[in-house]
Design a protein that fits this description.
A six-stranded parallel beta sheet has the order 4-3-1-2-9-10, sandwiched between helices. The chain is built from twelve helices and ten strands. Helices cover 47% and strands 16% of the residues. It starts with a helix and ends in a 6-residue tail after the last strand.
């Protein structure tokens, strides 16, 4: 594609389900003139308990699908897929691909006052130690406490974000971090911003909560501007949504998260890619 075609081309965004909509929402806010093609791999969620090999295979299939949509850049709006697959797919792909971990880590290092940082995420993200590695590269003196919270994703996906059972699960998972000296905590899964209010209430004012979605959107904006492929102002934009299963359920969720009314959700067989 030439520069003019790239300028008008959409941004690809993908996640294991609805969590990546928190990143898509931030891209819509910070880059309001860009087109977006979103894919939610709802047939194969959650990614957090899957093997690295499986997640790399899933990511490659999704990227091949997004490339059929002529995207100019791809955002892996999933911490688990970023941790397990980003480096592998970047090596094999000409399209610019960014993840959500480095932007979140950078924000936490900037924000912490005592260099004690908490990270909550899926089993896959925490097991990968990628947040710890990147934070330590940025600040070797930082201490990182990781905690896997595997029930958070299904609670969000099933619409239990405001249910009292979620508050009980938050207490079970986060009490140790709350009672430690951690002063900054990264929401290391794109589903978790949908629990942000409850998590902030539980952690209190002393702990700063980092949502990597905003930082990721700003990184993307900078990359597009530096490459000269940002879309023009006040051009009509469009958003397309695809899933691998449960389109109607995804639509209901998208309409509760995104700042505009989502009409059509298309279901595809991702195994074809």
């Amino acid at each position: 594609m030439n520069t003019e075609e790239l300028r008008k081309a959409p941004i690809g965004v993908f996640d294991s389900g609805v969590g990546g909509l928190t990143v898509a929402r931030e891209i819509m806010r910070q880059l309001p003139d860009e087109n977006i093609v979103y894919f939610g791999d709802t047939a194969r969620l959650p990614y957090g308990s899957k093997s690295k090999e499986s997640i790399i295979r899933f990511a490659k299939q999704i990227i091949r699908f997004l490339q059929t949509k002529k995207v100019k850049a791809i955002v892996i709006a999933c911490n688990t897929a970023t941790a397990q697959a980003l480096e592998a797919v970047q090596k094999e792909c000409d399209t610019t691909i960014i993840g959500v971990i480095e932007p979140g880590a950078r924000a936490a290092v900037k924000e912490t006052r005592n260099k004690k940082i908490g990270v909550i995420g899926t089993e896959g993200t925490i097991r990968s130690n990628m947040y710890t590695r990147i934070i330590k590269e940025m600040d070797p003196e930082a201490e990182v406490v990781g905690k896997a919270c595997p029930l958070f994703v299904p609670l969000v996906e099933e619409g239990f974000a405001k249910h009292h059972v979620t508050e009980e699960v938050i207490d079970i998972y986060l009490r140790e971090i709350r009672d430690s000296e951690v002063d900054t905590m990264i929401l290391g899964c794109t589903h978790y911003p949908l629990l942000r209010s409850a998590i902030m209430r539980y952690m209190g004012d002393r702990v700063h909560i980092v949502n990597p979605a905003y930082e990721t959107a700003m990184d993307l904006k900078k990359i597009l501007e530096e490459c000269g492929i940002s879309r023009g102002v006040n051009e009509f934009n469009k958003y397309e949504f695809y899933v691998s299963d449960a389109a109607e359920k995804f639509k209901q969720f998208a309409n509760s998260v995104l700042p505009y009314d989502v009409g059509t959700i298309r279901q595809i067989n991702i195994e074809d890619y």
